[in-house]
Amino acid sequence: xxxxxxxxxxxxxxxxxxxxxxxxxxxxxxxxxxxxxxxxxxxxxxxxxxxxxxxxxxxxxxxxxxxxxxxxxxxxxxxxxxxxxxxxxxxxxxxxxxxxxxxxxxxxxxxxxxxxxxxxxxxxxxxxxxxxxxxxxxxxxxxxxxxxxxxxxxxxxxxxxxxxxxxxxxxxxxxxxxxxxxxxxxxxxxxxxxxxxxxxxxxxxxxxxxxxxxxxxxxxxxxxxxxxxxxxxxxxxxxxxxxxxxxxxxxxxxxxxxxxxxxxxxxxxxxxxxxxxxxxxxxxxxxxxxxxxxxxxxxxxxxxxxxxxxxxxxxxxxxxxxxxxxxxxxxxxxxxxxxxxxxxxxxxxxxxxxxxxxxxxxxxxxxxxxxxxxxxxxxxxxxxxxxxxxxxxxxxxxxx
Amino acid sequence: xxxxxxxxxxxxxxxxxxxxxxxxxxxxxxxxxxxxxxxxxxxxxxxxxxxxxxxxxxxxxxxxxxxxxxxxxxxxxxxxxxxxxxxxxxxxxxxxxxxxxxxxxxxxxxxxxxxxxxxxxxxxxxxxxxxxxxxxxxxxxxxxxxxxxxxxxxxxxxxxxxxxxxxxxxxxxxxxxxxxxxxxxxxxxxxxxxxxxxxxxxxxxxxxxxxxxxxxxxxxxxxxxxxxxxxxxxxxxxxxxxxxxxxxxxxxxxxxxxxxxxxxxxxxxxxxxxxxxxxxxxxxxxxxxxxxxxxxxxxxxxxxxxxxxxxxxxxxxxxxxxxxxxxxxxxxxxxxxxxxxxxxxxxxxxxxxxxxxxxxxxxxxxxxxxxxxxxxxxxxxxxxxxxxxxxxxxxxxxxx
Amino acid sequence: xxxxxxxxxxxxxxxxxxxxxxxxxxxxxxxxxxxxxxxxxxxxxxxxxxxxxxxxxxxxxxxxxxxxxxxxxxxxxxxxxxxxxxxxxxxxxxxxxxxxxxxxxxxxxxxxxxxxxxxxxxxxxxxxxxxxxxxxxxxxxxxxxxxxxxxxxxxxxxxxxxxxxxxxxxxxxxxxxxxxxxxxxxxxxxxxxxxxxxxxxxxxxxxxxxxxxxxxxxxxxxxxxxxxxxxxxxxxxxxxxxxxxxxxxxxxxxxxxxxxxxxxxxxxxxxxxxxxxxxxxxxxxxxxxxxxxxxxxxxxxxxxxxxxxxxxxxxxxxxxxxxxxxxxxxxxxxxxxxxxxxxxxxxxxxxxxxxxxxxxxxxxxxxxxxxxxxxxxxxxxxxxxxxxxxxxxxxxxxxx
Amino acid sequence: xxxxxxxxxxxxxxxxxxxxxxxxxxxxxxxxxxxxxxxxxxxxxxxxxxxxxxxxxxxxxxxxxxxxxxxxxxxxxxxxxxxxxxxxxxxxxxxxxxxxxxxxxxxxxxxxxxxxxxxxxxxxxxxxxxxxxxxxxxxxxxxxxxxxxxxxxxxxxxxxxxxxxxxxxxxxxxxxxxxxxxxxxxxxxxxxxxxxxxxxxxxxxxxxxxxxxxxxxxxxxxxxxxxxxxxxxxxxxxxxxxxxxxxxxxxxxxxxxxxxxxxxxxxxxxxxxxxxxxxxxxxxxxxxxxxxxxxxxxxxxxxxxxxxxxxxxxxxxxxxxxxxxxxxxxxxxxxxxxxxxxxxxxxxxxxxxxxxxxxxxxxxxxxxxxxxxxxxxxxxxxxxxxxxxxxxxxxxxxxx
Lengths: 400, 400, 400, 400
Description:
Four copies of one chain form a homotetramer.
Chain A: E1 8-10, H1 19-25, H2 35-52, E2 58-62, H3 65-76, E3 82-86, H4 90-101, E4 105-109, H5 119-127, E5 134-140, E6 142-143, E7 148-149, H6 152-161, E8 167-171, E9 190-194, E10 205-210, H7 212-220, H8 230-237, H9 248-264, H10 266-287, E11 290-291, E12 303-307, H11 314-325, E13 327-329, E14 340-344, H12 351-367, H13 376-386, H14 390-399
Parallel strand pairs in A: 1-13, 3-4, 3-5, 5-8, 8-9
Antiparallel strand pairs in A: 2-10, 6-7, 9-10, 11-12, 12-14
Helix pairs in contact in A: 1-9, 2-9, 5-6, 10-12, 10-13, 11-12, 12-13
């Protein structure tokens, strides 16, 4: 079936890449050993530092976020090291799996996939580890499979209370540049991210923000590594270069995307995502469906995972929506397969794109014969307009 | 105010240009006197003939639709010639104005801007013109200022009944490639169009489809002309060339757009516009607002003009919608200034784009304090899903 | 035959459009009645004024340069008016032809196609026109068919000496933004140009720079006009708008191209073209071939027309070069057909592109069996390096 | 210094990316878990198999060629394994370094950087390894730092004669799609490549073609791995998917590049590179300079490394050429730093680009005061035209 008009890419990443970024990527490739490229690299790193909120190095890999996860491990740990991973969903399970492939021992803290990492549990585990065997704690900030956002500052405080020296490794793949994240202030040691979500760039770049403590750990970490090794990259980055050929054209895209984030202002970006998260949940409630996330403190503002009513398959709904409305929604992963669909509302996005997205879901529910109440889009519109006060409308009138 | 995400360009043209067309336009410019260019020209003309439904020449101008209107006159008429123009709205008035600038005498048939050209009136005028002084009849197929679509076949029949030899000149600028149009079958002599509406290309190309009778008229027509002269263009077009430098990169865009129309199939394109026209009118009725077009036989499927309630200014509504929802709506033109806003739902468009568009209008009405009932988007969604039968859903499932 | 690598578009326009301009054109189309577009228009006009070196209006048409020529006539003249056109080549003949199509009487001053317009001849003709019947003088600044650049300031002086009130209309299509041009200072009344040469934009926009005297003439000029009418355009331009849909995406391209001219600096642009003109002529001389232009004061810096030795066909040479070396050269026009080929060295161009261009000609001469001496490229390289003094090399070293 | 026109990116990769590929990359990103993406993946793998000349899996990584090198090791070897690496230049040294970082033991066969790997030396080493301790032999096909192409079939025969079971790992980063390469026929076990050279795509994708024997080795290989692990990727690739987010937009570019290679035909691509290699060497000889490669059987057709005369610095020459002629040449690496410059003539390239490139070098030599004879470009042109027989010229004439 030929589809006219825009494709709505409402998976929770890759997100709809802005046309400015796509065009920037179409610039001719340049010499990665020349001064023009070096200047670009230095600007990118500075821009990423503003977004990660860090003064420490941010390492850029040609690779996926998954590669950056592996980088976090191989640079800081040695075979047989013990780590804690919180089971918050499919991507936490991936972190566990990677660790095990690399020969680490994982304490996998069980979870119901509807709540974030528990600070009480973390404190208790660390306190009981008097020998400081645990070398690192891994938390997925926004669990992309569930739409639950763990509260990193609370977890940090728990670690501090336990006076435990473990590294804190955070997966910010689907939260960075969508809602509040502060690498330095929150005392994160390695923050892992990818280009294709809040950063609005196509997939192909992975990032590690690296604390001083993490770099120190890399001096003794014994896992074999070359491609992901921080030292050589950070060293050459000082002058704007890389030890191997970097992803030139994705760099162009990232440069444009960082400029767009600067133009909008990170706080405005966060406010926008918050409005859209709230409006989406208003729609889900109006439909009479259930959001996966149980704790309002942990609602994700970048995406929303929704349970299907019993007896209805999420993938059939997604298929109908894709075929009829030219929209891709996120699949339910692992134990949520067929039971959950996920709505991405992150990246380059606005109120009318959200209205179209939710209309696609509402019409899909109807076509698929899924029991629901009408009025989700209406509820979302009420939510969106409620947050625009009449004073703001007057202001924009004057500003013209 | 920085705006994230897609801009919704919902004026009744230029329309949202598909990214495929935009990228095609970014190809390097080639020699307009070379064989590769000649082959492109011949393909374009053949493709345009399929869309205009004609076997006669289609002339391509670097220029606007307005230029193509002037071309229709200067090639077929002489100073002092008498023509009939139906007052259907602002663009009919433009045709009158151009004619007068060129020294033609215009019988301007009055209209209320809410109905199309009257076949009875036309028959009566032509019948009473026993001397055949009237040389041409001008009708705007889809009056872009009002959303009223004149019924060309009925007008043609009226001319035939009157046995009058006047040329029939039709402005199909905002109807071609959006709803049914048949240059040959309907006996139109000159069809005028531009690139930027149903053809999904940026503005910059104007078109004239030219009947044998119109070409014959050009042999005796005495209005001075060079740039718009058909003869030299049609002559050189036979081998794929032009008498002056053609708009190479817009040609690339047009080539891609014609390919897209072929892929979707013109009948499917028309059905899509019909669904969207209907859904839009359902929304307007649900809001309790009034559509400009009075006669359901003349509803436009490419755009809808809507009256504002008394005491409310359409431009203030449009400003609020642009500022808050990143959407451009069409302005009220001439006597409709401030009183009417226009929603374009033509070109590269789909159900979710329409839902977003109507959500923007509904939220704008609320923010602007315009009296209305909620539920327009809901009504539109009901209209859209009603036209997707359960059988069609099953079919697509099987087709995978 | 599949061709790898860049196509060398070395006709004297359209020129090789810079990738920056092509990408700029791929931006989504916006509302031509909105504030963002109005701001763009105002910037474009200001930028064009800097390039034309005028404080007077510059009118932008969706159209070719040929359309802008027609505009120069219809806005300033009336049927039966007498004008002087200098026969400098094919494009001068086009001006004559357009004039005649519009009902003007043309005094066509004969020329040998190897020299520019003669100031003595002009002075004599104007002086003998005591009744001031002659309303306009038309000169092609750079005759694109011959590579001869008429000396406009000298012609202006001749008009001044004759104290004749005729308008001076200049075709700067292939000179503007390539070598020195000064609309105001030189007292030109209408300067005509197109987008596709020195301005580095694809074809599709035509320009008229309009003096106060030309505007005054338009008040009494009686040729019928609408599309090309200056008054309405200049009036609406004041706020950044147009009376009909402008060529939005070509505007984006022009905006980028004007930025590039600003970055390089017009004087540097002119110096670059001068170096390339000189190096090209050095190559032609080294081959033992003859440049069309007879008078060194009138050498064109934007292109060079070259005579073929007797008994050899320029089009066969051009075909061989296109087939084997992926380069388009300019065809010989009218009486030069088959006898002349033209090398464009204008627009976005540099030393290595010129070297490749001349290598293509030199290899083509060999393959085509055209008698010539080797060493044209070598002579050009000597010319190019001679103009880079050792001091300039040291300077760039220090500037790093 | 502002630079007009095309930048000549004549490093030996990344190469000048064709505009078709750049535009393809600017397509909107799609769902990497959808059917449209799966179909793309399957087409890409099939296309890569045609280029690698293999029926075995080709693994695509988001990453650099360097990452694919690491992948070759970690999938086939275990810590402490012994391998043979031939010292052919800087990139051979990189392979040694990576191996050592991963805990492998490297027999580094010394070389003078001017010859390829010696089949005699290989046979002798393998024959003397009766215990079959050597697990793999690593050869860089085209040593990008020297322009020397090792003769893989001869090396394979040496291994066969020695009846040694070691894996043959070949780095084809700067040879694949430029000159002859046959993964299956030559009995290579792992061929490593990147996207940014002969494949004409920007950097960001790495490839491994994997023989059955190499896959079998991966079952027992114990180096820890996750990101680079073949099994999961090859498994998911069967249906067109990936275990982690693939580089969607680089995939679009690769798809277009593979189509271009198909259109030109691999044999024609190879013949083109051979012509350009020969012409480049003719130029170097004419200048009186020395090519690094000593053995004509090992001349590279994708790039040429050239020694600077004593007392002259290659980087100063490169700087002058970049500043004055907008061309990037390859730097001398490691022990060749300052002593060698490298000319890339691979990827999307043609005769006039080569002429421009060589003209840039010749003019640079002059400006830099490097002793040389003039006439390199002339010699290259003679070489290029000599290979175009008069019969081929007649043929193209008839084919039109």
